[in-house]
């Protein structure tokens, strides 16, 4: 537990703000320009911040630099959420949103605009249905043991070839599809699965086999596929202009972070807040990157994500404001 009073918070905030803008270790003399205390008092406070692991001294300088823990504390306890975007920034974002809403296949262009505004990697996940609905089911018999299952969802059409143990006639398959569509068309996949369980043995054996052991399993797989997010990145050229990348090792770590897509997806899907900041994307490594992530809803059950990835030395209030403004314009715009 940190014993951080308002004076220490102000000094830590000053160190982070100066370092974010200059990428230069911060001395007590620099802090004294903004904080009305003597250099000796500031040095004492900085010594405490260093002792609890919020700042450290690089080998090449007597100045201080924020640690991962320092950035985390800043984001959680100090950072203001009142940063105001200027009119030009809003106009650029609005234009990009207007274009991507017309055609989400152009999401890379949209992300490229965000990357240029932030000088970071921007990422996005195309809108996806979090609760896919089944509009229609069809069965096509390919051979005695192979059936093509065609599911028309509210967002797409899915087709799979499934193998059955006992042959079912064409007429019976047509009958089962008609029976299913009359009762379940328009329902969410989860609701259909629950209804199938409730029916249990109250339906004839062939219906039971197709519904319980064939269709229900395939619905589960299709629901999982429908929610499988494809993360799209733009802005590598922009982020490489950051001074951290004069070191090749830093670039190597960034590539590793982006390639660890499952970790990115895990952070996105596990966060219930519509807008959050993750300092240190992968806690199991020594990487020094942060991620600002935000979720939006084009409709009540159609969700997407946007966000930014870059060095921990980033302008968190501005990025928070950009992400917040963007999702407010996107929400229910579809």
In summary, what is this structure?
The chain contains 13 helices and 11 strands. The chain has helices spanning 6-22, 28-32, 39-51, 68-78, 87-102, 107-118, 170-184, 189-199, 205-226, 236-239, 248-259, 261-270, 316-330, and strands spanning 55-56, 65-66, 121-129, 133-143, 146-153, 157-163, 187-188, 231-234, 275-279, 289-299, 302-311.
How would you describe what is shown here?
The chain has 334 residues and is an alpha+beta fold. The protein is built from 13 helices and 11 strands. It has helices spanning 6-22, 28-32, 39-51, 68-78, 87-102, 107-118, 170-184, 189-199, 205-226, 236-239, 248-259, 261-270, 316-330, and strands at residues 55-56, 65-66, 121-129, 133-143, 146-153, 157-163, 187-188, 231-234, 275-279, 289-299, 302-311. Strands 8-3-11-10-9 form a 5-stranded antiparallel β-sheet, sandwiched between helices. Strands 6-5-4-7 form a 4-stranded antiparallel β-sheet. A hairpin with an 8-residue loop joins strand 1 (55-56) and strand 2. The protein starts with 5 loop residues before the first helix and ends with a helix. The mean pLDDT is 88.
């Amino acid at each position: 537990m940190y014993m951080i009073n308002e004076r220490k918070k102000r000094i830590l905030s000053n160190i982070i703000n100066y370092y974010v803008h200059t990428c230069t270790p911060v001395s007590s003399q620099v802090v004294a320009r903004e904080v009305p205390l003597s250099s000796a008092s500031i040095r004492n406070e900085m010594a405490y911040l260093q002792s609890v692991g919020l700042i450290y001294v690089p080998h090449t300088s007597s100045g201080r630099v924020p640690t991962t823990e320092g950035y985390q504390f800043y984001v959680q306890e100090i950072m203001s959420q009142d940063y105001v975007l200027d009119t030009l920034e809003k106009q650029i974002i609005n234009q990009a949103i207007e274009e991507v809403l017309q055609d989400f296949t152009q999401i890379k262009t949209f992300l490229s605009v965000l990357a240029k505004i932030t000088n970071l990697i921007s990422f996005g996940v195309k809108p996806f249905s979090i609760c896919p609905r089944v509009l229609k089911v069809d069965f096509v018999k390919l051979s005695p043991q192979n059936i093509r299952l065609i599911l028309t969802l509210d967002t797409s059409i899915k087709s799979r070839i499934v193998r059955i143990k006992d042959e079912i006639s064409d007429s019976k398959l047509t009958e089962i599809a008609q029976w299913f569509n009359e009762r379940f068309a328009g329902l969410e996949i989860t609701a259909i699965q629950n209804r199938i369980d409730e029916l249990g043995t109250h339906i004839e054996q062939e219906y039971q086999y197709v519904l319980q052991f064939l269709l229900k399993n395939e619905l589960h797989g299709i629901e999982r596929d429908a929610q499988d997010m494809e993360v799209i990145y733009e802005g590598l050229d922009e982020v490489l202009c950051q001074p951290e990348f004069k070191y090749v090792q830093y670039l190597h770590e960034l590539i590793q972070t982006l390639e660890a897509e499952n970790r990115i997806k895990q952070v996105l899907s596990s966060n219930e807040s519509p807008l959050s900041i993750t300092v240190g994307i992968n806690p199991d490594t020594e990487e020094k990157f942060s991620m600002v992530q935000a979720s939006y809803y084009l409709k009540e059950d159609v969700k997407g994500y946007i966000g930014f990835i870059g060095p921990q030395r980033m302008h968190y209030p501005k990025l928070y404001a950009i992400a917040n403004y963007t999702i407010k314009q996107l929400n229910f715009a579809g």
